[in-house]
Design a protein that fits this description.
single chain, 9-stranded mixed β-sheet, 4-stranded mixed β-sheet
């Protein structure tokens, strides 16, 4: 053999080679494919880099014993780094594009002395990936063998962050569909409240208008919105509203008819609750789903009655619930210990009369309303006074609507009556907390949010203020330091679990993704709930849990728990390529993690930051490190094993 076996030599520079041919005695002859070499093995690179910069150096000894070495010829000008994009790398796993000059096919890159993985190269650009556990200004150096660039000072992480990286990532599990490195940095830059304000100001982003007439595809479009769109807080809140103001394709039938309702929830996410409640009430989708559309007045004989469907559900599910609550969300009981009801059947019948005389808007905007008009999903429902019940109506808390009013006046007054009921704050706030932060909030937490709902700067029903209070309450932020409480968090429902996993790997998702089928298998076929009661009850008590609520566990069956794990395994099943492609709609690149896999502890550290906001318990870390170390299928398989074990674990499945 020759020493060195491989080397890098700048133009016109020299390198001494030594023959170590076993058993060779006598004269050694040398040949080289580019450059020159002396009988003593002193190689000199050519003055001009050849088209093929790798030269082969061959030594031939007696008895035709042969050995070769490879020389890569590089510029004799040290490489320079002029720009790095992004200008600040996130803490954790990152990918950088380095721009400069005199890069070569054998360029290596270090950050603070640690080797980075080079993914693609050209004379003026390098794409590299790596992992940084801590932030700061660190030197980045590009080397071509013995020649190195001047250190480029790269900011890693956010300088003077307002919150820690771990806290930012945990916050995004509650306020978004999980963290990406870029989003976590944005939270660190702006702080929690600054990020909330920025998100609320973003316009709604939606792709539902691209649906074609069918009974499928809405879940696939939802996943694209959830993973790819920048208005993460709006998207997450819209999912919560979607499961409070439930309407379902099982009655609406066509996705193109259902799409405007989802867009209405997206655009109305941060409206005052009173306004959002009216949008829901007059939505043609809700009109069809709960039979308010073309709901005519009853007759004097009482043989024909107004339909009670919407009247019952707007009270039971959309606003006040069935039992009285105090400001802390506790059930109010009478002297005998029975829960005090919020309304009775007579109240439902009175509200049913309120909601008579509404039909679908005419096909031509501004045209007179026509009773029993065929479906029109483009515009809110319109009143048809002749079919409205104009008798007196007795509502909540003794309120009375006088006889002779219009359908619009009755509807407006009735929604005002509901909106001002004391139950709305605790009923709605509790559910929003459960959807975003935790299944078992304390009474103090609920009350803090109720106070914001009841009066923020003199305004009742300010959802922007309520969302801020939910996300910034001390109870929501208590786990940011890594100390968990047994009552913290909630199980990620399938519609949250999937996008969180995909965003963690920085996936690119489009509407052709196959995950709509997975949501069906996981008992959450979005926008197609089996009834107005949604897929699960927020009050579902986990068996053998000493009374802990966990609504999402109602659809977490033995079958779906196994299917969830198998689905995660299928996400990481492309063994031959770092770029994982799942059907035509999902792609993500594991290269940054594969490059770390030769050091299992470093890989697990990177996965910890990526998937468990840097707060993985030491015991779990040790188990996963051992499993990765024992994986003999190569570095790609090691990275996939790590992802599978963490994403499938209880620690990742439950938001902390």
């Amino acid at each position: 053999m020759l020493s060195p076996k491989t080397t890098i030599v700048p133009q016109s520079a020299a390198q001494q080679f030594t023959s170590l041919l076993s058993g060779a005695t006598g004269t050694i002859s040398w040949t080289v494919s580019a450059g020159t070499i002396t009988p003593a093995g002193l190689y000199t690179a050519p003055a001009t880099i050849p088209a093929t910069p790798a030269a082969t150096n061959t030594a031939v000894g007696p008895n035709n014993l042969t050995a070769t070495a490879t020389v890569t010829i590089v510029s004799n000008t040290p490489p320079t780094v002029t720009q790095v994009n992004p200008a600040a790398a996130p803490a954790g796993v990152f990918t950088l594009t380095i721009t400069g000059t005199d890069f070569s096919p054998v360029s290596t890159v270090t950050l603070n002395g640690a080797q980075l993985g080079v993914q693609t190269q050209s004379p003026t650009q390098l794409v590299v990936s790596g992992f940084a556990k801590t932030g700061g200004t660190l030197p980045l150096v590009v080397s071509n063998g013995p020649l190195s660039s001047q250190p480029f000072q790269l900011q890693v992480g956010v300088p003077n962050p307002l919150v820690s990286d771990a806290a930012a990532r945990r916050f995004l599990e509650q306020a978004a569909f999980g963290p990406t490195a870029a989003d976590a940095m944005r939270v660190q830059q702006l702080g929690f409240q600054g990020w909330i304000d920025e998100q609320i100001a973003l316009p709604p982003a939606s792709n539902y208008s691209t649906l074609t007439a069918s009974q499928g595809g809405m879940s696939a479009h939802f996943l694209t919105n959830a993973v790819m769109n920048p208005d993460q807080l709006r998207q997450r809140m819209a999912l919560a509203w979607q499961q409070i103001f439930v309407a379902s394709i099982n009655k609406i039938i066509w996705t193109t008819d259902m799409a405007p309702y989802q867009d209405m929830l997206l655009s109305g996410t941060f409206l005052n609750f009173r306004q959002l409640l009216q949008y829901v009430t007059l939505s043609p989708v809700m009109g069809k789903y709960l039979d308010m559309a073309n709901n005519g007045k009853g007759n004097a004989a009482g043989t024909v009655l107004a339909n009670e469907n919407y009247a019952r559900e707007v009270l039971q599910l959309f606003s006040i619930g069935t039992v009285m609550l105090d400001g802390h969300g506790n059930v109010i009981r009478d002297a005998q210990g029975y829960a005090v009801p919020t309304y009775d059947q007579a109240t439902v019948a009175e509200f049913a009369k309120v909601f008579t005389g509404w039909t679908y808007a005419p096909a031509t905007p501004g045209a007179p309303a026509v009773w029993n008009t065929w479906w029109n999903g483009k515009y809110p429902m319109v009143p048809y006074q002749a079919m409205h019940d104009v008798t007196q109506k007795k509502l909540l808390n003794g309120a009375v609507l006088n006889a002779g009013q219009t359908a619009m006046a009755d509807m407006t007054a009735a929604l005002d009556n509901i909106f001002n009921h004391p139950n709305v704050g605790p009923f709605i706030c509790t559910q929003l907390i459960q959807k975003l932060v935790k299944s078992n909030p304390s009474g103090t937490y609920i009350n803090n949010c109720v106070l914001a709902f009841n009066n923020t700067s003199g305004v009742r029903g300010d959802i922007k203020a309520v969302v801020g209070k939910i996300l910034l309450d001390p109870e929501a932020r208590a786990g940011d330091n890594g100390v968990d409480s047994p009552l913290d968090g909630h199980l990620k429902e399938p519609a949250l679990f999937l996008p969180v996993a995909l965003r963690a790997v920085n996936a690119t998702v489009n509407d052709q993704n196959y995950y709509a089928f997975e949501l069906i298998n996981l008992n959450q076929d979005l926008m197609n709930a089996p009834s107005v009661f949604n897929f699960y009850s927020p009050d579902f008590v986990i068996p053998n849990s000493n009374g802990l609520k966990g609504g999402e566990f109602q659809i977490y069956t033995p079958y779906t728990s196994i299917h969830r794990a198998n689905m995660v395994n299928s996400m990481f099943s492309a063994y031959a390529n770092n770029v994982q492609t799942i059907g035509p709609g999902v792609t993500f690149d594991l290269t940054p993690f594969v490059n770390l896999a030769s050091t299992p502890a470093a890989l697990v550290d990177a996965l910890d930051i990526t998937l468990t906001h840097g707060q993985m318990p030491a015991g779990l870390k040790s188990i996963i490190t051992t499993a990765i170390t024992n994986e003999t299928g190569g570095n790609l398989r090691r990275a996939q094993t790590g992802f599978y074990l963490i994403i499938a674990s209880a620690y990742h499945n439950v938001i902390g």
